[in-house]
C-alpha cells in the first residue's frame, strides 16, 4: 500500500514538474483570451480549496486531515498554473494592471513567493500541527494579497 | 460678575459606552481590514459588534435620553446655518448635547457605519474569506458590495478625521473640552442650562440585547438556513 501511495505521489510530483515546465511554452502560443480563461480557472479552484483550508484554520469547521490534505495538494498544484498565463496583452477585460508587464521581475517574484508558500502546505497539513497549519494558511494568504494589492485593480 | 457654574449630566451611560466601543472597534477594523489575510476573521467579528452597536444607537436615537434622540438634535437649516455662522464668526456657543452642525455629523457617521458593516456581510476578499451573507446573493452583487465596502471605508476614515479635527478645534479655539463629557457624562455650564431628561440604562440594555440577538441570527443562524 505504502509503495503504491508513494509511487502515486512521485508520479504526481513528476506531473507537476512537467506541467509547470510545459505551461509557459504552451502559453506563448495561446491567444490572450484563453490565457485569461485558464489562469482564472486556476485561481477560482485555488480560491475554493484555500477557502476551505482557511475555514478549518479559523475553526469555522472541524479540521479533517484527509480533506485538508486534498485541498492543500490542489492549492499547491494550481498555484503553479497562473504564472505561465500572463503573456503580453492579457490585461484586456481583466483587473490585471498593466504594471505587471512593466515590473515583470517584481511580479514574478511575488508569484514565486506565493507558489513557494503554497508548496509548504501539504506537508504542514500532514503533521496535523494546528499552530503550524494556521501559520502556513496565513502566510499563503499574505502572499496572495501582496500581489493583489499591487497588481490587481479594485472591483468597480 | 462671573456666573455660577452648574454641572449638567449631558450624556447617559449607554451613549458613552456606545461611543467609546465604536471608536476602539472602528480603529481595530481599519487596521485588521488593511492587513487582511487571517486578520479578516477578527475584522468580521469587530464588524458584527459595530453593527450591533449601531443598530442599538439608531433605536436609542428614537427612545433614548433627550441628548441622544434624533428628534432633539437634528435641527433645521435655520439653526444649522446660524450655528455655522457663529463658528465662522469665531463666536463660541456652549450647547448641551450635539450642536446643530454636529448633530447631522452624528447621523452621517451612523449611516456610514451602518452601510460599512452591512456591505461587509456580503463582501469577498477573493482569497479565502467571505462575509456570511455572500453565499446568499449573486456574485455580481458580491462584487458590488466588495467595491462599496472598500470605497465607503475611505469615506468613513475621512469622516472620523473630520470628527476628531472638530473636537480638537473646539479645544484649541475655546478651550472647550468635548472629550471629558463623553467620558464622565458631565459638563460644567456657565449660567443657564436645563438638565436634559435621561432614560434608564436597563432600557438600553434591553435594546442592546435585542440588537445582538438580531445580528447573531443574521450572521450565524440565517446563513446556515
Mean pLDDT of chain A: 89
What is the share of helical residues of chain A?
A: over 70%
Q: What average pLDDT do the residues of chain B reach?
A: 95
Shape of chain A: globular
| CA gyration radius of chain A, whole angstroms | 16 Å
N-to-C order of helices and strands of chain B = EHHHHHHHEH
Number of strands of chain A: 0
**Main sheet properties of chain A:** none
Radius of gyration of chain B: 20 Å
General form of chain B: elongated
User: Structural class of the secondary elements of chain A?
Assistant: mainly alpha
Strand order of the largest sheet of chain B: 1-2
* Content of β-strand of chain B: under 5%
Count of extended strands of chain B: 2
H and E order of chain A: HHHHHH
User: What's the number of helices of chain A?
Assistant: 6
Can you tell me the residue ranges of chain B where pLDDT is under 50 for at least 5 consecutive residues?
none
Task: Explain how this protein is built.
The complex is a heterodimer of chains A (156) and B (225). With 156 residues, chain A is mostly helical. Helices cover 76% and strands 0% of the residues of chain A. Chain A contains 6 helices and no strands. Chain A has helices at residues 2-29, 32-57, 65-79, 99-102, 104-127, 130-151. In chain A, helix 2 (32-57) runs antiparallel to helix 6 (130-151) and helix 5 packs antiparallel against helix 6. The radius of gyration of chain A is 16 Å and the shape is globular. With 225 residues, chain B is mainly alpha-helical. Chain B is built from 8 helices and 2 strands. In chain B, strands 1-2 form a two-stranded antiparallel sheet. The relative contact order of chain B is 0.18. The model of chain B has no long low-confidence stretch (mean pLDDT 95). Chain A binds chain B through residues 47, 50-51, 53-54, 57-58, 134, 137-138, 141-142, 144-145, 148, 154-156, and chain B through 36-38, 41, 125-130, 143-144, 146-147, 150.
